[in-house]
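Comment on the following before class.
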Amino acid sequence: MEQTQRTRAPGRASREAFITATGRLLRRQGYAATGLSEIVSASGAPRGSLYFHFPGGKEELAAAAMERTGEDLRAAIAAVVAAYPRASESLSALIDGLGAGLEASGFRDGCPIATITLEASGSSETVRLAAERVFAAWLGALQEGLRADGLDSGQAARRALLVLSAIEGALLLSRARRDLVALEAVRDELAALACKVA
């Protein structure tokens, strides 16, 4: 039994290392520019274990990294939503947090899912489905906060789509311009909109 546990732990560590390294590389440089050799090198895990953990190769590994990163951000969205009683406050805090992360990365790290989705979802159903699941989870977390602030389910679903679309667009513009003007404008407009309706 002790031998089995010892064997499993390094295997689990290798899998986690591959997912972490892949998520970091995909976010910064995209799908096509990220090769398996680079992932192996960045992960520090044994090359031979890559296909053991991810028999579907790069597509499967990218989907796993997207879902891990997506879940981390979904949890962060849910925490921000839970921390503020009003949607206007939670949306402002969320956008400020995203802006701070973008600025800290030197405007290199935008949305961890958008980069891959734009590049690979047309050619990889595996990647497209992973992106769809991640975005649906983010929308669910946003909807929860909007419902708690007084919107009915239908209104919350539509407003969450508007919020996520605006934030994704603002992240892209902010990366291109290397400033936070677009994110700040979206923050202010969404906060004002939330105040009018809630």
Summary: Residues 1-9 have pLDDT under 50 and may be disordered.
